[in-house]
Specification:
Two copies of one chain form a homodimer. Chain A is α+β, with helices and mostly antiparallel strands and 298 residues long. The first copy, chain A, is built from nine helices and eleven strands. In chain A, 46% of the residues are buried.
Chain lengths: 298, 298
């Protein structure tokens, strides 16, 4: 069975009852709520859903109905940038589903949101209609307050819906993307400049690996610094290659890797590929993993 | 839900109908037949089942009833050593189940086989009652033909059942063990002596790692030799440690690792631990694997 993850971000992180009603709206047949977490200073909540395409479409439309009835961005202020009451809705392929199918789902759901709620919809990341809309930060730039002006520009005609902001709900940014892997490497040094230099070397924006975002940060109370990274496509820029590159760059400063950590969830494939790499495995298939075989047989 | 693997070996590998009836007897509620393969020269078939404890007990007893009715070891000759019509029945913990539970299941099923069919039962590996019965080869030594004599010796009183061989079915060896990982490392050399020396260095029997069986073999038609290994407990002797040791030993002869391969199935844990090791991951848990989280939530 196809398993798709969907992680709607809504612009409400303070009123627990309101968030609970939004989460409840996501509980439809074929969808499981994996997690919901609110951040009061961001004034934002992140809901993690898994399910099939039909279930997720129903869940997201239900969520929009609830959120649009209760969230008014005209009186919303938080630390996190946002353009819509339902701000971002990414669909993420997990198992038995292709990226192309998630892109199709994003288009279908985006069109339905625009149609049912008269909210302009932008498609982003793998679902983007043009290269300039791939990056979420570019689409969201100007935020809710700048949306009316943004929509007057020809390059920001929405992918679906009216060419005017919804008065209280703003716009909605819908897309498809690979699962993120939050991967941090701690270095056995207190030299923050080394972590920053390595971050600069490995990240895409300054010339490094295509699907790496990175920054060097101090670790309070520890004799270590961190290269903190997001890997935005672990199939094309694999974890082991990032690890090896950071280790090699650190050696150039006489610094060793102390340890690494994965924050939150990681797709099994990212770690299986890592084992496959370091063991120099040949002819290996995920169907050789006992649990996968058991699951496909039962 | 607990998932246990059970791999009965029966002494029939030539009569396809008879094997099919034995396999059919294993298809009970709660049990899935993953695989069945027969070897005519061995005159033996290996049936791979997965299921829960109650289902597997019923499947194995049904298999015994069918096999004991149709297999007569007095007229059985094959290349593979055997002591029983149903020769070996190992239970293997896969998911959500401990080794102790598999040992208890082996004892329960062994007692039931002895009771219902008047077949002497020996317990082996993790289910062994004494150290001298841990190793399957030691328990089976003497085979069917030597069984009557073996049973007269005080150290070979069966764990369950009569102290006499069943006339046509012999004895049955029941136990619990970890999943095997068949792991081969190919070396970029044609020097068979190097593969043999490394096998000697890493295997338990000649002073190496506790849960490694190994031999050095030539690879016909390839400019490579192989260290062919069985890892009998990948939790205690992990794949990455075996790989590193073989690589280090090979370097001592100026030889590089060309590639490795896993033959057949491997538990996910063996590869996750490998990724964890080489990435120097800290604080990592299998619950961070997205697919595991999805599965436990749905």
């Amino acid at each position: 069975m196809a398993i798709i993850e969907c992680v709607p971000n809504i612009s409400e992180g303070r009123d627990a009852d309101r968030v609970a009603r939004c989460v409840a709206a996501c509980r439809v047949h074929g969808v499981t709520v994996l997690n919901a977490s609110s951040d009061a200073s961001h004034h934002r909540s992140v809901i993690t859903l898994i399910g099939d395409a039909a279930g997720l479409k129903e869940a997201v439309l239900g969520l929009c109905a609830e959120a649009y009835a209760s969230i008014d961005l005209r009186s919303h202020q938080g630390e996190h940038p946002r353009m819509g009451a339902v701000d971002v809705v990414p669909f993420i392929p997990i198992d038995g589903v292709t990226m192309a199918e998630c892109v199709a789902l994003a288009r279908d759901v985006g069109a339905a949101i625009a149609d049912r709620f008269e909210v302009p919809v932008f498609l982003y990341e793998d679902a983007a209609s043009v290269a300039a809309r791939k990056n979420l930060e570019d689409v969201r730039r100007g935020e809710f307050e700048g949306l009316a002006d943004k929509l007057t520009r020809d390059e920001w005609v929405p992918d679906f819906g009216p060419r005017r902001a919804h008065p209280s709900a703003g716009a909605c940014i819908v897309g498809a993307r690979m699962p993120l892997v939050a991967f941090n490497i701690n270095l056995a040094t207190t030299r923050l400049d080394v972590a920053k230099k390595i971050a600069t070397a490995v990240r895409f924006s300054s010339g490094g690996l295509r699907f790496v975002k990175a920054m060097g940060i101090a670790l309070d109370g520890r004799d270590a610094v961190q290269v903190s990274m997001n890997l935005t496509n672990y199939e094309k820029t694999p974890v082991f290659r990032v690890f090896d590159m950071v280790q090699r760059e650190a050696a150039r400063y006489g610094v060793s890797v102390l340890e690494s950590e994965i924050v939150g969830l990681v797709p099994a494939g990212a770690l299986l590929a890592t084992a496959e790499h370091y063991l120099q495995l040949t002819g290996f298939s995920a169907q050789q993993v006992l649990e996968n075989k058991v699951r496909s047989a039962t």
